[in-house]
C-alpha cells in the first residue's frame, strides 16, 4: 500500500472541480494507493516529463503523479484536471 501526498497545486486544482468529479477522484486515489497499476486507472508514463505517470479517473479527468524520491511507498500527486488541459 502506498501513502498519497498531494502537492499544493494538486489541491488547488482539485478544489476547482465539481463535487461529482471529486468523488470519482477519491475512488481513483484509493485504487492508486492500493495498486498504482490497477486496470481501471489505465496508468502509463507521461510523455512530457521523465518519471511522471498519468492515471485516468474517468474518460476526461487525469491525475499526474510520481513516486517520491528517496521515500519508500509514497506517491506525490502533481496535477489533476481534464485530459485536454494536462
Characteristics of this structure?
about 90 residues, alpha+beta, YaeB-like fold, 5-stranded mixed β-sheet, 2 helices, 5 strands, globular
Provide an overview of this structure:
- The protein is an alpha+beta fold.
- The chain has a single domain, classed as 2-Layer Sandwich (YaeB-like fold).
- The protein contains two helices and five strands; from the N terminus they run E-H-H-E-E-E-E.
- A five-stranded mixed beta sheet has the order 1-5-4-3-2.
- Content of β-strand: 25-35%
Number of domains: 1
- Name of the CATH first level: Alpha Beta
C-alpha-based Rg, rounded: 12 Å
Mean pLDDT: 94
Q: Helicity range of the residues?
A: 25-40%
What is the CATH architecture descriptor? 2-Layer Sandwich
Regions with little confidence, pLDDT below 50 for 5+ residues: none
User: Strand order within the widest sheet?
Assistant: 1-5-4-3-2
- What's the N-to-C terminus distance? 26 Å
Task: Tell me the CATH topology.
Answer: YaeB-like fold
Number of helices: 2
The quaternary organization reads as single chain
Largest sheet: 5 strands, mixed
Number of beta-strand segments: 5
The run of helices and strands is EHHEEEE
The computed structural class is alpha+beta
Morphology call: globular
| Superfamily (CATH H level) name | RelE-like
Amino acid at each position: 500500500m502506498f501513502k498519497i501526498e498531494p502537492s499544493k497545486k494538486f489541491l488547488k486544482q482539485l478544489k476547482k472541480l465539481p463535487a461529482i468529479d471529486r468523488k470519482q477522484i477519491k475512488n481513483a486515489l484509493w485504487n492508486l494507493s492500493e495498486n498504482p497499476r490497477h486496470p481501471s486507472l489505465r496508468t502509463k508514463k507521461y510523455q512530457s516529463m521523465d518519471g511522471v505517470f498519468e492515471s485516468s479517473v474517468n474518460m476526461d479527468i487525469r491525475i499526474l503523479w510520481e513516486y517520491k524520491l528517496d521515500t519508500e511507498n509514497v506517491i506525490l500527486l502533481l496535477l489533476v484536471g481534464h485530459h485536454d488541459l494536462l
